[in-house]
Amino acid sequence: MEIFSKPDDLINYKKTLKGSVGFVPTMGALHNGHISLIKRSVQENDHTIVSIFVNPTQFLEGEDFDKYPKKIEADSKICELAGVDILFLPTKEDIYINSDEVLINAPKIKGYILEGYHRPGHFDGVLRVVLKLFNITSPTKAYFGKKDAQQLYLIEKMKRELFLDIEIVPCDIIREENGLAMSSRNVYLSPTERNQALLISRALKRASNLIISGQRDAKKIKEYMMDVLKEIRIEYVEITDRDFNKTDEIKIGESIILIAGYVGDTRLIDNIWV
Ligand code: AMP
Q1: What percentage of the chain exceeds 70 in pLDDT?
Q2: Residue 215 Cα, ligand 1 centroid: separation in angstroms?
Q3: What DSSP string describes 174-239?
Q4: Fewest CB within a 10 Å sphere: which of 124, 159, 168, 224?
């Protein structure tokens, strides 16, 4: 496995490669969710690049940027074992090279609802770094988890609207056996908080059971979910179509049910695609 930190070194090395390139951008503290994306890329491409970069521009003032878990040695081992060819480990200064940079704005509406409403500016930072990483790695395919559903939607939107010649591959959410969606932030949870966090996937399960038994009314489904989520400081429970327009009625194959909330000081998100 080759390791690069300087964008130009990776750009030059990439020119020597033949065949397809899969790219998996991450912020590290790798878990089975990340590993599933990496394995899929290794399977589908001649070369796989993984980046680990805790991107400062997507964190808001007061969020957990400074304490975001870092496990670089374990992460490199995981990448090597999973068959990654190139690990990209830039510093903040390698990525942000000028204090007066060309910027990219998230769309004014879809970038500022749900996650974007509660974390205003978050998606400007996400799209800015993802575009930089796409330009450095120029992949054939890039892999993103449905766990960050709105992020995935906005990256696909950026790809279409900026005419990026990259296939965006959505990957299923990986969960612990008990249903908890895997997340690097789960390490912040105490044992009691872990139990509370389970209510989030339980509420989504409840929603899917209601839908299976014929319920289609979004308002009713949200009410049932809120009942399960009483102990959690919920930021939103929402039902949208695949373009993130709020919907009153579930349409099978076209809807997403999303939750964001705090368990203790830890902000968690989860969703199901129905
Ligand atoms: P992060 O390191 O949190 O920025 O995540 C890097 C990528 O892994 C993103 O595309 C996430 O959506 C994806 N990811 C994170 N957690 C999961 C999970 N539990 N299942 C599937 N993909 C995930």
Answers
A1: 100
A2: 30
A3: PB-TTSPBP-GGGGG--HHHHHHHHHHHHHHHHHHHHHHTT--BHHHHHHHHHHHTTTSEEEEEEE
A4: 224
